[in-house]
Structure prediction request, 112 residues.
Amino acid sequence: MNNPVLFAKAIADETRQKIMQMLCCNWLSVNDVVDKLGGNISQPTVSHHLKILNEAGLLKRRKEGKQVYSSLNQEAVVVCCGQIMTNFAPEMLGDSKSATPEGLIPQLQPKP
Prediction:
């Protein structure tokens, strides 16, 4: 799912932003995330945050036995950011006028 509204709602929360940073390039279980947050946030609350991120399409998930591991879906982040840029900052995209995962990163230069 690449819905920019769900994406914006998902990243609007500071705790979810921290969780996204933890899950970037890492596979973690809900208990791993609770531990990395210093135990300050309960397991049910972390599960709730993971559910919101997953519903926004921002997580990759894999199951190992009873454990579910999550990792940040970086491609979805790029697509959603690209859609937002296409709608609200098209001049930053150069000549393409649309953002794609393959072409977005090199196009982040302002037009002369």
